[in-house]
Write a structure and sequence with these properties.
Elements (H helix, E strand, L loop, with lengths): L2 E6 L7 H12 L6 E7 L6 H16 L3 E5 L3 H9 L8 E2 L5
Parallel strand pairs: 1-2, 2-3, 3-4
Helix pairs in contact: 1-2
Pfam family, one: STAS_2
Protein name: MlaB-like STAS domain-containing protein
Amino acid sequence: MATIFPVGTGVGRAEIPALCAALAALLHGREPGVVLCEMAGPGRPGIATVEALARLRLTAQRYGWQLRVRGMTTELHRLIGLLGLTAVLPADGDIHP
């Protein structure tokens, strides 16, 4: 069973440490599995959104978890691809226009 972790699409760099701390607190002491970063909310994804997802992936890995991105838009998918992180930040399910 996957664990859902909400992430806003318009994440700013200042929010990244708090997101990583929240994910660490959620995963600490739990059996490893898959965490789904649920992309939702207002705003357009930017480089900071991709940075947040990459750092969340590192946080998940520290606890033995895998990370997938759910609710990924075409725009976010393209950004991830341009940065060469498609294999690192896989989409869970369909890419939404």
